[in-house]
Every structure is written in C-alpha cells, then in structure tokens.
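Field reference: sequence -> structure
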Amino acid sequence: MVLSIYFEPLSQPSRSVVLFAKCAGIQHEPMLTSLIKGDHKREEFLKNNPSGKLPFIDHNGFKLFECSAILRYLCATLKVEDHWYPTDIVARAKIDEYLSWHHANIRLGCARQAYLLIFNPMLTGNPPDYEFMKHYREIYDNAMKIFENHFIADTKFISSDEISIADIMALTEFTHLQVMGEHMPPVSTKVQEWLNRCQGVTEPYFSDVHKVLFTLRDKVVNKKPLTFDIY
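Structure field:
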C-alpha cells in the first residue's frame, strides 16, 4: 500500500498530517511541494488536486485534500491506536467538535497573525499590518478562552486524557506562532502545560517536522534577513 503525502513544511495543516503519520507509525512517501515556488499551481498537480491546497494525499490512487478529512480517513482505513480517533461514538463526537471548531477559531487567529507579521512582508516587501492584526488578535484571545475553559478544562489533552488528531492540529497552529518572535501572543499556564505534554509525546517527530519552521523562527529572533530559501 502506497501512501504519498504532499506537504509544505511551512504549512500548519501539512505538518499536522506528516506529524500524525510519523507518530502513528504509518508508512508513507513524503512529497515536498513548495507553495512559495508555486508547485501547487502546476497543471499536473491541479489535475489530481483541484483545490490547489496542501496537504494532499494519494493512497493507492485514492486522492484526498483537507487536513481534518485526511486525518480521519487515515484513522479509519489504517491500523492506528484507538486514542487518535476513538471508535466510541461519544468520545469521537468530542474530537469532531474540536475539528469542526478549529479552522474559524484557533487556526484563523494564529495563522493570520503570523501571516500579516512575517509571511506577507516576506512575499510582498510591504511592512507588517499591525492594525489589521488587531482583528485576528481578538479572534485569538476569544478562541484561547474557549480552548482553555472548554476543550482542555478537565482533561490532559483535547476532550480526552490521551492525545488525538485534534491535539495534533492544534499543536501545529500554536507552534506556528513562534515565528512571530517577540510579537508572539502569550499563552496561559494551562495551555503551555498542554503544549508541553503534546510535544513530549510526539517527540522526536515533533522537532523533525518543525525543523524548517524553527529555522525561520531563529532568524526572526536573531533579527537576521528573512527569505524563503530555508528548505
């Protein structure tokens, strides 16, 4: 069985799928696909993935895009431990609750702040739009309250005492904020403890999957010239 994962190392959803595959022991062929170089816009790529987005998988000819759909598909079709996506309908519903909430809340708040501060200036040469960032900071702050007071209120991981695909998706988003350097928005003690637990149980794969992101982060922190030539 051949599973090809098309991914971009600076993409949080891409890192989620690759990190999960590594942690779950799923054999796969990583297919580096550069968003910066426009690999996702090439005709051959769009024939297989009309969304032009990453991540994307080809599993023995079955093609699928969208991170949460891919994660759920892999859990349903391959032999992975039950805690990743529980078979118990109530436990699974709580994981689905987070997966449905994630994109318009944690992802939107985290990703847009990092994009406006770091990635858009790198792409366009324009200065960061601090005023526009305030809108996404508000989304982030509100999402953080719900994340802390609901999703990890009484459990070690998201709505569970074992790590799941929901934690993987949230982990890559929060980690992405590190590229903001001194402008990184704070996380609460409770959320930081959750982050530490997630990173601990996903090592050594966590550090490996985030190597490119951390290279960019270190340049920001050390105030070095920023380019996308970091693969």
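Note: The domain at 3-82 is CATH 3.40.30.10 (Glutaredoxin).
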